[in-house]
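User: I'm preparing a small set of examples for a lab meeting where we compare how different chains pack in three dimensions. I only have the primary sequence for this one, and I'd like the structure in token form so I can line it up with the others. Please keep the answer compact; I'll paste it straight into my notes.
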Amino acid sequence: MAYLYIIQQISSVLVLLRFRSLYALLSIVFFAIIFIFKNDTYDLVSYTAIFASNASGYDKEPLFASFVRGINAFVADPRGALYVYQVLLLVLVSSIIIFFKNDRLLILSVLLSSVAVMLAVNNNLRQGTASILILVALLLYLKGYKKTSILLGLSATGFHLSTPFFLATIVGLGKIFKSMHPVYFSRKRLLMIRFYIVGFFLAILAGSLFTLILDYSRYFNYSGVIMTQGNERTPLALKVWLVFFALVVSEFILKLRSIDHDVDLLRFLRFSILSLVGVLSFSPNFDEIGSRILYFYFVLEMGLLALLISRRLYTTAFVIILSYAFATNVWNILGGL
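Assistant: Understood. Below is the structure token output for the 337-residue chain.
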């Protein structure tokens, strides 16, 4: 299945060759084959047990527990119930295309092939659901539906205990971006590098403060946990460098110029999150914590991909999609090469 996933990403070259509809159809077919026929690995095995226990012990994540118990009321088989949850998560992901008027089929295909969705549906269901809800809430906010956005963002806390951290991060970075963007946008030659300098120094500050707030966060239990020793998982530092390389290439294609408010915001958010993970990667104590925060980077990048395609910035989108072919974490959950 990992080979099929790699082919799915490489086939995105069809976008550059103006066979966008063909790529969209192929990508969706590839995703369907992987989703239907892949074997359960890693967390999916645990989630089957969670459904079998009727989400016992997950009352601190009440919406997740409620969904599990609600599905179990109609589906007796735990794996069948888990499958229903996965489909509902895919419906949530697919709803993102509502925000766009053009290239909806292409955007849907890119969403389904993204690292964020592959990991969410096939591994980290709870954090995946919460993170994607935050992304949808952000898109709603950008469209002017502020009250609905706030309610949806708060609902994400019912699926994963790490959600308040990411909500606070998005709100804080969003306010900083809002205060900076009009100033720089008024200049004829805006370079995103100015935002990235700010994001980098904020990441250093946040990384320094992280140890102080760790005891009060959902990630306390992961402090000092290193899951890359003795198995096929990729060390955090290597993942950060690979992702950073793809980010740099995509930014150089955009010539570090401003596109518009929404695209620039997602670029700023993803860079800031990646910078934080980069800072954390210098300490082995944050190896697993950093990997879980890195997932949120991919969720933000999924939103950015949709925006890039809607702006017909296909070359930049292609570079990002192609980089996903080297996502070793996706390879692993699909059974490895």
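A couple of notes for your slides: The chain has one domain: 2-333. The longest helix spans residues 287-310.

User: Perfect, thanks.
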